[in-house]
Design goal:
Blueprint: H1 15-26, H2 31-40, H3 45-65, E1 85-88, E2 91-99, E3 103-108, H4 113-124, E4 128-129, E5 132-133, E6 140-141, E7 149-153, H5 159-172, E8 182-187, E9 193-196, H6 207-211, E10 217-224, E11 230-231, E12 234-236, E13 241-243, E14 250-254, E15 268-270, E16 273-275, E17 278-286
Antiparallel strand pairs: 1-2, 2-3, 3-14, 4-7, 5-6, 7-8, 8-17, 9-15, 10-14, 10-17, 11-16, 12-13, 12-15
Helix pairs in contact: 1-3, 2-3
């Protein structure tokens, strides 16, 4: 009598999605709403239902037995100025919208059209396949999660980079030396960055290597450098928010508060480019001085 074939293992739900589901359970979000979001993100419906059920069961058990582990995140006031238009070092920058708790904002006119073109020109000759941080080892690796190509500019590497860093510091109040190198990313048709968090997960062994220098990431600035024909927006699944790329504009979001807590609601993704191409600059800000 032949043995019954063993079915292939089910795909593992990414830790970012586990965090997202658990956070929604804590906040009282219903299964139907979470299911819609997962279906829209491309999950099989049966798989999504099972994942929601399992995470809900585990989270509710923790709520009963160790409620202190599930303290709900409370954002500090957003770092940006309250005015609708502000002087950021050498340039006037508009603030298009601001969400508070979670802290997300749209900035307009952070770069001029010529500055966007110059950053693309400077980066074009040194692009390489983008990488992600392995949660276990902390090492950088190529992954299907992130299919863009990219490069970086060291702090103050040229006059344009220096100007942009000073503008970001003036807007956020975060010193220039707390910023990681500017990352320039290029997405072709079909390229994307699937839902993820920018902070380093304290539960992952590999995170310790990254927070040793400069501490945890506290905020992100994503600056769009070109007009994308279709697709390529920055989406926040939990907030039902999508920012469409416009040259010189930026989406800014914070996910670390003064209590040292992390905001899982800032799960975000770079949607696939449907037509044309997308160029962006990403700036990650740290707790303390970052030197590398």
């Amino acid at each position: 009598m032949s043995a019954v074939p063993i079915p292939p293992p089910a795909p593992r739900l990414a830790p970012d999605w586990q965090d997202w589901l658990a956070g929604n359970v804590v906040r009282g979000v219903g299964d139907a709403e979470m299911l819609d979001a997962m279906r829209n993100a491309g999950f099989d419906e049966n798989y999504a239902r099972t994942a929601i059920s399992v995470v809900r069961s585990m989270t509710e058990r923790v709520q009963r037995e160790s409620p202190a582990l599930l303290v709900q995140y409370r954002a500090d006031p957003i770092r940006l100025p309250v005015a609708n238009r502000v002087r950021a070092a050498d340039r006037d920058v508009g603030i298009g919208f601001v969400l508070q708790d979670p802290n997300v904002a749209l900035l307009t006119g952070l770069l001029s059209g010529k500055e966007c073109e110059e950053l693309i020109r400077l980066a074009s000759g040194k692009m390489r396949r983008s990488q992600v941080v392995d949660r276990g080892s902390g090492q950088l690796e190529v992954s299907a999660v992130r299919t863009s190509e990219g490069t970086h500019f060291q702090r103050g590497e040229n006059a344009l980079v220096q100007r942009l860093e000073l503008r970001i510091a003036a807007l956020t109040g975060v010193p220039v030396d707390h910023g990681e190198p500017l990352q320039v990313l290029h997405y072709r048709v079909g390229d994307e960055y699937r839902p993820h968090h920018d902070y380093f997960d304290p539960a992952s062994p590999g995170s310790q290597e990254h927070v040793r220098q400069g501490g945890q990431r506290v905020a992100t600035m994503v600056i769009y450098l070109n007009q994308v024909e279709e697709g390529g927006g920055t989406g926040f699944p939990e907030l039902e928010l999508s920012v469409r790329p416009q040259p010189g504009c930026a989406v800014y979001f914070e996910y670390f508060n003064s209590a040292g807590e992390l905001d899982s609601r800032c799960l975000h993704a770079g949607a696939p480019v449907a037509r044309g191409e997308k160029w962006v600059v990403t700036k990650w800000l740290r707790q303390g001085p970052y030197f590398r």
